[in-house]
Amino acid sequence: MKLLIKDVRVGDLIRDIFIRDGVITDISPKCGQRADRVINGRDKAALPSFINGHTHAAMTLFRGFADDMPLKQWLEEKIWVLEAKLTEEDVYWGTKLACLEMIKNGVTVFNDMYWHFESTARAAHEMGLRAIVSAVLIDMFDRRRSEEQIHKNVQLFQAAQKYGPQIRFALGPHAIYTVSGRSLEWVKEFSEENECLIHMHLCETEEELRFAEERYGVSPVRFLAGLGLLSPRFIGCHGCWLDADACEILAQTKTRLVHNPVSNLKLSVGRLFPYHLMKQHNIPYCFGTDGCSSNNHLDIIETMKFASLLAKFSTNDPTFLSAGETFDRATIVAAETFSLGDWEITEGSAADIILIDLARAEMVPNFHIYSDIVYASNGSVVDTVIAMGRVLMENRYVEGEETILREAKKRARELVER
Amino acid sequence: MKLLIKDVRVGDLIRDIFIRDGVITDISPKCGQRADRVINGRDKAALPSFINGHTHAAMTLFRGFADDMPLKQWLEEKIWVLEAKLTEEDVYWGTKLACLEMIKNGVTVFNDMYWHFESTARAAHEMGLRAIVSAVLIDMFDRRRSEEQIHKNVQLFQAAQKYGPQIRFALGPHAIYTVSGRSLEWVKEFSEENECLIHMHLCETEEELRFAEERYGVSPVRFLAGLGLLSPRFIGCHGCWLDADACEILAQTKTRLVHNPVSNLKLSVGRLFPYHLMKQHNIPYCFGTDGCSSNNHLDIIETMKFASLLAKFSTNDPTFLSAGETFDRATIVAAETFSLGDWEITEGSAADIILIDLARAEMVPNFHIYSDIVYASNGSVVDTVIAMGRVLMENRYVEGEETILREAKKRARELVER
């Protein structure tokens, strides 16, 4: 498959981009090569696509079903009730809807944790996205459940191979307050042996800190470090309640974090992400939207704006987490986090590219593209999305989107009635 | 002019909406009346349009020109340098761009404060928006400048009459640290005599509190109350540094506030809006985007999401500032603030209506329309905008938008080079 993007802005220049079999092979003023498909890049800027570092994709089905409620009531009376009724097909269509929404917002890779692993993997694969997929590993400190979960995860790891490199299995121990040390020790070993990423909620709430203190007598990070779980393969999500001691350990172990500012505010987790500690200890972090019950939008540009502005506010420094750095975290840093290789528009790199529509009010006068994207826009400025050399969206149209919207809506409505 | 919106969602029902000369005259299942223009409302929801409570419209020209800088350097080296070079025509095109952007985001009324009053008024009038326009009244405690400003504002008040009720003059004393007590006394009298609104920055920063304490020995609110300036005609913008004493006075005087959450974060003003005090003292507040140098996006839905989520986070209560309340503040409360009359889709009310596109990923499954708008969407879900019975946008297209984008971009680029 040969793809040509003509007359598109790359940095400050107008260029043709030629893509052969998923790799950018030529960026030049007039490339002159024949392609199977040509995309008109006029009035558009080519940029690397975004990576959503933490989500629960199928929860799009619950969007708007239960907002503005106290956490306990929300979980017990609404979310858990619906989740208990979820079928494989529900998760499949919920994930398809999430993938559609992520494509519309310029995302081509996402890191997921949810029930019904196979449905998530199948949906993401069909939609042409790369996904790191983990099941929700919860044993509630029960030995029998721990054994079941380990057995199941080994099976899923094997089953995931059929999707090839596009879908990667990850271990998804939910959190320290839902997973036993026994299971976590297995997670560590399996992760080392098979080079699997570990995707875990970490220091999201004060309750988690109290839990670790009461049960283990140390902080969550010290507990995990003690198990040897922390490494560049460990993806800790949230991290609002991390302190300096924890950050020192994260830095030493080269652990990676995913920051979910919108979810943290909406669920009132009590503390903002410690941006100053991240900088001080040079801890790599990228961004996640979290699932649609706690955000409720899979727009990573919106998430970037929240992160950058909260960083400025909470450090009392308007220069903190600049537009350029924010953009890099959602692209280059995220690509490093998930070992995706080069994530820039350069010859030889993988062709996950978005085209930004510059002919929109919010992109005028367009003094600085990163500033305009992070501070003045949202996912709707993304016109075209290319993943691994395949065009997933052009002129904001995704093939088959009508069916996905109709089926997901029907499933969500039926789920509530069921 | 007779306008018919066919088969549109109004609440939970599908209805036709008939509009005659800017007033909704019929909402019924099949209205059957002949119209000059018919809009297809299928798969769309009709809602009242939004009101942007505080902006400096023409600053769209500066969008992205100077971000991520310390406040003093930003103002002195960038913003003031450009503002000194601004011409009438620059402000006209900058405001046209702002109006275009606001229409794209479902805004039909805005409250503005900027230089070159006539350009703002003319641009807003041409674009079909209602605007409350104030000049920037600054005298820096200089008697001669105070006299000049008073003279100029009297002239502008008279000049504004030619635009009819669509454009309303307001007095715009910039802030207590830039305007003398002498000028503020005149503002009070003129506002009373002519029923003008007063549009003023209030308690945005800690510096303002320190200034009031040092110069007047009281808080900004006590100082203004002492001058008799506070009343339902007073629109105080920002208010992040208001305390309980100030809020009691604001409640007694029925003063109204505009909350600008995005700007407050971006400029690191040091404190979040005191949502709990607002609720405790039942102070009416609506939302503003602020100008494009400190936001940089005139998307009031985005602003609503920031406000609602910051309220939840800062009160540690996920039920605070619910989606419905947030929506009402951006519409009904804002309409009361600016004396715009009924602001709901009912027979007899003025026809400022937006149609929301329900056939988008983020609007599925659409359990609750207010939740979906506030938490899951942004201005790009607005498909059609009607102001005073005139269609300003249909299928996201605004007549003449290409010219506005081209001219505003050219002006902004020339301004920097000039």
Brief digest:
Chain A has 418 residues and is α/β, with parallel strands linked by helices. Helices cover 41% and strands 21% of the residues of chain A.
Task: Give the SSE map.
The structure is a homodimer of 418-residue chains.
Chain A: E1 2-10, E2 13-20, E3 23-28, E4 37-40, E5 44-48, E6 50-55, H1 71-85, H2 88-104, E7 107-113, H3 117-127, E8 130-134, H4 143-160, E9 167-171, H5 181-194, E10 197-202, H6 206-216, H7 220-226, E11 234-238, H8 244-253, E12 256-259, H9 261-266, H10 275-281, E13 285-287, H11 300-315, H12 323-337, E14 353-357, H13 369-376, E15 382-387, E16 390-393, H14 401-417
Parallel strand pairs in A: 1-4, 6-7, 7-8, 8-9, 9-10, 10-11, 11-12, 12-13
Antiparallel strand pairs in A: 1-2, 2-3, 5-14, 14-15, 15-16
Helix pairs in contact in A: 2-3, 2-14, 4-5, 7-8, 11-12, 12-13
